[in-house]
Amino acid sequence: MSATVRDDVVKTASPLFNPRDPEFIRNPYPTYHRLRRQGSLQWNAAGNHWIATSHAVCASILKDRRFGRRYEAMVENIYGRGMMGETCFRLLGMTMLMQEPPAHTRQRGLVSQVFSARRVGLLRPRVRALVSELLDGLEPRGTMDVIRDFAHILPVTVICDMLGVPEEDRWLFADSATISTRMLDPVPMNALELHEANAMFEEQGAYFTDLFERRRRDPGDDLISALIKVGDEGGLTTDELLANVWLLFAAGHETTRNLIGNGLLALHAQRNALRRLQADPTLIPAAVIELLRYDSPVQYVGRLAFEDVQIGEATIRKNQIVLCLVGAGNRDPAVFPDPDQIRLDRLDNKPLSFGGGIHHCLGAQLTQIEGQEALAGILGRLPGMRLRDADHPSWQPNFAIRGLRTLPASW
């Protein structure tokens, strides 16, 4: 997987950036601006991959069928050979997220039959009621951790409702986010993190396998029952069913939780935008898109070249990997004027936060509905809310998925 680059393409044996640096995790955007000024596509010899930093290059690669997912090659690039036998990598590799046609087409087609836009759209009243119920309990307290007490509970409840996970079983999914998202980083997990990731997949896998059997005996009006039916008819294997149910669960809450946390932190840092939003709640749908752009829960997406591809002055060779830094693309001044400012009036605002091409996030609509209802509820019910420690927030030590550990608030 050796690189071939032209003499006029940026190349270095030193890392272009350190995704585990606490300062980078706290605020990656100055680094992104520096990298973009150096070049929109650069070879990172230390990581044995390319990085794309501009909106145009990221967007083109995500839609280009000469690039795609070959998960085993991407794991090998980070860890070396022989890791696909690990439970966490084996199951993640079987999800539609990590597959290419024809397996991706078959899996996504079956999942889309039940995780449809119509079904998701009908969830808005339920999401609104859950927001109200959560705030009914929180408002009299005068304080909360936005992440633990609200941003995590809301989407976990929604996706568990959709999947048909009984309330008494939901404790199992209380604290798996950091482990599961760490797997996506380009810096390898250590032995303890790998053990914890495997244990999480094994525990949740055993639970869902048992739930599948219960739903086969006694189907309900839920996603798992529907997936079992279309899966049996369309040829989903048990492992594929398990992998994609886990994907729906993980993706169904992680992005929303971080949208709410990242978004509220950003609004309180740029109070003119916050005040405008409080004065005009009709701007909330536009605000959700802008907050997804401003501090995206997804910071990079990996792609592998299926053939030699020329982009500008760079020749990306077959089987080389490109990290599309969508967080950098979302702050590209060539596309977004004043990219470091929250602007609720952006026209044709199209961030890269949900990816692109055939792998565009299936849950994008659900995330936006939950984000809209969460913002409307918090801004309407808690207009005087203040964030504590907002100048020194506590971030999860991840790169691929960006989110806060905690966000204390009072009112």
From TrEMBL:
Keyword Hydrolase tagged: no
Record-linked Gene3D superfamilies: Cytochrome P450
Classification via PROSITE patterns: CYTOCHROME_P450
InterPro entries according to UniProt: Cyt_P450, Cyt_P450_B, Cyt_P450_CS, Cyt_P450_sf
Domain of life: Bacteria
Keywords recorded for this protein, A-Z: Heme, Iron, Metal-binding, Monooxygenase, Oxidoreductase
A GO MF term: heme binding
Function recorded in the entry: Cytochromes P450 are a group of heme-thiolate monooxygenases. They oxidize a variety of structurally unrelated compounds, including steroids, fatty acids, and xenobiotics.
Family listed: Belongs to the cytochrome P450 family.
Protein name listed in UniProt: Cytochrome P450
Protein's organism: Skermanella stibiiresistens SB22
